[in-house]
Amino acid sequence: KKKKPKLLNKFDKTIKTELDAAEKLRKKGKTEEALKAFEALVNQYPQSPRARYGKAQSEDDLAEKMRSNEMLQKAINTYDEVVSLPNVPSDLIKLSLKREADRQQFLGRMRGSLVTLQKLVQLFPNDASFKNDLGVGYLLIGDNNNAKKVYEEVLRLAPNDGFAKVHYGFILKAENKIAESIPYLKEGLESGDPGTDDGRFYFHLGDALQRMGDKEAHKWYELGYQRGHFASVWQRSLYNVKGLKAQPWWTARETGYTELVKSLEKNWKLIRDEGLAVMDKERSLFLPEDENLREKGDWSQFTLWQQGRKNEKACRSVPKTCTLLERFPEATGCRRGQIKYSIMHPGTHVWPHTGPTNCRLRMHLGLVIPKEGCRIRCAQENRTWEEGKVLIFDDSFEHEVWQDAENYRLIFIVDVWHPELTAQQRRTLPAI
Q: What's the CA gap between 382 and 376, in Å, rounded?
């Protein structure tokens, strides 16, 4: 049974009745009254850590109620003040700093949060949970190296810490140490420790096993689906809107974007010729795929729109193609997608993988397609491209590509919003 945290020092025990009365107001949801009561106590007893903590909690509650970042910043400052008072019980220090770090993260103050977490670790060096939180703090600012060091330290102190294991495995996988990542991800998930039951870890463990040719991958995808992290065993995107129609392959009619498809197919030679001209003249515009999706080979892309933002410089190289697309906001405004040329050379294999979101569909327009040797699988069905024709699939389903032809394959990729998203959702969904 979890021990109740000790929040009162010797002095606060003498004013327990007044503190309890203020706390009762807070628990009843009388936020403004609670804040006034705690402010009065802080004015009367400025050295009382519990009164100061109650004030911070009331400001925190009020910030949520008012949806006010300004009020939340006040709460953060007050949590910080608690720790600087004399004779603060260690449980109260832990609660104050942990909440301060959490609220800083909520406001996007990642580096400030990191400083708070570092303070916690310095004050309580034997508490692995604070080190684990610090590791997450480093991951949130993209500092995988420091996060890795933190988790190595945790695993030295507590070799069976499941939280540290899944995060350490996640970092190894990001470093492309596929085989090494598997035992950490697997043992971490099997531990059932708090914070381990997260879709990302099932996703990356399954992916790592799949790349090693291990059929156990399917078991973890199945488990991730049963735990509610994936829409299905095949559809494993993690940034989803519930209830959208889900199928691997779509027809133009089903999407409702028939005008866009007709326009792409009618103008495919123009799109192809502009792409070829750029490819011949300035190869540096095509950048190698950088998401570590290739097992082998040569695959490059030239992006015109990213996250709903037009790349003006890129469009100056293919002006007619970009002018053509401007008429279709379902594509140019799709903040969860891209519009790009994609060239794949012979001898390329793209690992089975899953896109990040179910909020888009992906169109592939064939531009230069070798007669044999190129194919794409989405879920359990293989298809091939045709020059001048559009293939439409939902890339939140597992898909895989093979290029075993004699010559390169050039396609044009256009992502569009899922047709069932409302206008409001299209406006407000954050970019990916």
A: 6
- Asked if 293 and 351 touch (Cβ cutoff 8 Å), the reply is yes
Confidence class for position 341, pLDDT limits 50, 70, 90: very high
CB within 8 Å of 301: residues ≥ 6 apart: 286, 287, 289, 340, 341, 342, 343, 413
Q: CB pairs under 8 A, 24+ apart, for 100-109? A: 100/76, 101/133, 101/137, 103/60, 103/72, 103/75, 103/76, 103/79, 104/76, 105/137, 105/140, 106/72, 107/69, 107/72, 107/73, 107/76
Q: Are residues 258 and 221 in the same domain?
A: no
109 pLDDT exceeds 60?
yes
Q: Does residue 221 sit in the same domain as residue 300?
A: no
Strand order of the β-sheet with 348-353 is: 294-296, 348-353, 399-403, 374-378, 381-383
Q: What is the pLDDT of residue 125?
A: 94
Q: Are residues 211 and 256 in the same domain?
A: no
* Separation CA 320–CA 358 (nearest Å): 30
Same domain, 209 and 336: no
What total of structural domains would you count in the chain? 2
CB atoms within 10 A of CB 260: 21
Do the Cβ atoms of 303 and 313 come closer than 8 Å?
no
CATH of the domain at 114: 1.25.40.10
Q: Environment class of residue 409 by beta-carbon count within 10 Å: exposed (0-12), middle (13-18) or buried (19+)?
A: buried
Q: What are the tens digits of pLDDT across the range 90-103? A: 999 999 999 999 99
Residue 232 forms part of a structural domain:
no
pLDDT digits (tens, 9 = 90+) for 375-394: 999 999 999 999 999 999 99
- Distance of alpha carbon 432 from alpha carbon 430, whole angstroms: 7
Residue 93 to residue 74: CA distance in whole angstroms:
18
Confidence of residue 291 (pLDDT cuts 50, 70, 90): confident
Q: What is the mean pLDDT of residues 283-307?
A: 88
- The parent domain of residue 18 ranges over 10-227
**Is 200 found in the same domain as 319?**
no
**Sequential DSSP letters for 258-296:** HHHHHHHHHTHHHHHHHHHHHHHH-GGGSEEP-SS-EEE
Report the alpha-carbon distance of residue 83 to residue 88 in Å, rounded.
Answer: 7
Quick: pLDDT tens for 214-232: 999 999 999 999 999 999 9
State the CATH number of the domain containing residue 397: 2.60.120.330
